[in-house]
């Protein structure tokens, strides 16, 4: 093991869509764990849309990444040194290790992962934050009932595919939206969506809305919102009375930065507000990090279903930390198929 | 008693703000009650902002008023003929009698009003639909907690004044918004708001936001939304994490009709959506008519407080059915002070 580690820093704040120049691969000494901390050799890094928000200035979920700082994110790897009770070298741990080959973190921020019960990559997707996001928000905010209709975009992503599979198992009609015919086939064949619409086949919200109206002939009871943009505009007029919109992301607008003039929406705020009023909709934004107390219940419910194959997963694994920026750019463009992961070792 | 009655019909659909020409005062025979129906001589008519929506074509709360049809609304009057059990001539009743001197309605749609326990006008405001709207939405959606801050516009109206008084009694800091110094003084002196801002003193949302930030230095936990427009734009960035927005009206935009190009909002949908996401807001539209099952609980709570003077009310009473259109136009412009009523007898 080298005493040097690699990490990727934010070289500059993106102006719209990030480019490779906004990232820098740097080398430095492997850090030393302090009291209560563990040192982890990262095996797999997670790439998630929320990271785009952290690259901007201004208010986001949490304090943003400073220029020159290491890109943040969750990863899973092997503990190679520990000053914390409960972690031994050789253990595997998930934690906020960032885009780095090695990292230290306080043990309280880490979660032990059992490599014998499931592949450790699942701690980044179906059994990690994205799967938990879908599980929590569908149940707590979506309040699904058999016979209702659910729409979710990014249907083959780790959130959308969890939402779709859970909703289907509860007796809902599930309508996915994805980019491209291949992803739509995957959504139906692997994740069991009743139908999946290719948003790339629809140049505007009006066209997509027409297709949605056919796919959801009784209207939409739950719109699980993780994309915004054209999909939101297509969906809103189709929402049924007392519909629910858990709002956990808006990837279509992330590259619009401060969401000023760059973020176009044909729908006006008054029109959106009017629909919420007239159709008695409930819109609720949430950040899953406020709800970790429910994570054990999530794992207890979903881990056996992953093991049995009742819940399916698809991963898209890039190779090498140096390829993380390109994979992240691809994630924002929808190039990935399934949960985007970067393999480091 | 004459055998003729007067009623006001929708002469034409308004293009923007209604004008007097959009209404017609007509005369016709007093209707005869059918089985299960009562005939009422209306004493007081209620004018409410929601009626503006019923004048437009297209989706609104309920089926809209046809051109030539009688303007809809709740009224209170004396039963002069009854084919229904439970109602006798001489009883007073509230019901959907419309803008008319006389009307029949099925007894199931009517509610007996006791003129000895409170002035019958209160059945249109503080002890009627507006008061119930404020009571229900504050408790059920607003979930107020002592020490929090609430903002409500139209603070001297029957909804806003109920919301403010209830919130104050629960230990919240209450910030009202109203049009003009006189209403602001009324909001503070009569309805007990901690502070009331005059939206007319602020030409744009930015200016109003600055004043709101001073009036609500800890941020806003509950924004009781009944106006939209400049106030909404001022409030949204000041919402605290986990803030709640009961959405029961948007009077600022009602005259924009279909809410297309005519309804201007400087804030974009992406910016609004982002704030809901990042601050984990809950926005919930509701129509009080879905919740009449809770009306007895409301009356049991509030009627004694009105009788004791713990809940204050202010009424603005126009005289004569012929003046209802002008009073309604004034309501949309904010000319009224307190609950707008029209006295017919």
**Tally of DSSP β-strands of chain A:** 15
Radius of gyration of chain A: 20 Å
Q: In CATH, what is the homologous superfamily of the largest domain in chain A?
A: NAD(P)-binding Rossmann-like Domain
- Briefly note the structural class of the backbone of chain A: alpha/beta
**Count of separate DSSP helical elements of chain A:** 10
CATH class annotation of the largest domain in chain A: Alpha Beta
Strand content of chain A: 25-35%
What CATH architecture label of the largest domain in chain A applies?
3-Layer(aba) Sandwich
Return residue spans of chain A where pLDDT drops below 50 for at least 5 consecutive residues: 257-262
Number of domains of chain A: 2
Report the mean per-residue pLDDT of chain A as an integer: 93
The largest contact between protein chains, plus residue counts on each side, is: A-B, 39 and 39 residues
Overall geometry of chain A: globular
Sheet having the most strands of chain A: 7 strands, mixed
Query: Could you name the CATH topology of the largest domain in chain A?
Result: Rossmann fold
Helix content of chain A: 25-40%
Assembly of the depicted chains: homodimer
Write down the secondary-structure element order of chain A.
Answer: EEEHEEEEHEHEHEHEHEHHEHEHE
Question: N-to-C terminal Cα separation of chain A, in Å?
Answer: 12 Å
Descriptive account of the structure:
Chain A is an alpha/beta fold. Chain A has two domains: 4-122 and 313-343, Quinone Oxidoreductase, Chain A, domain 1 (Alpha-Beta Complex); 129-288, Rossmann fold, CATH 3.40.50. Chain A has ten helices and 15 strands. In chain A, helix 10 (324-333) links the parallel strand 14 and strand 15. In chain A, helix 2 crosses helix 3 and helix 5 crosses helix 6 (229-235). The longest helix of chain A has 14 residues, at 129-142. Mean pLDDT of chain A is 93; it is low at 257-262. Strand 13 of chain A pairs antiparallel with strand 13 (282-285) of chain B. Chains A, B: It holds the Pfam family ADH_N_2. Chains A, B: Its EC number is 1.-.-.-. Chains A, B: GO terms for molecular function: oxidoreductase activity.
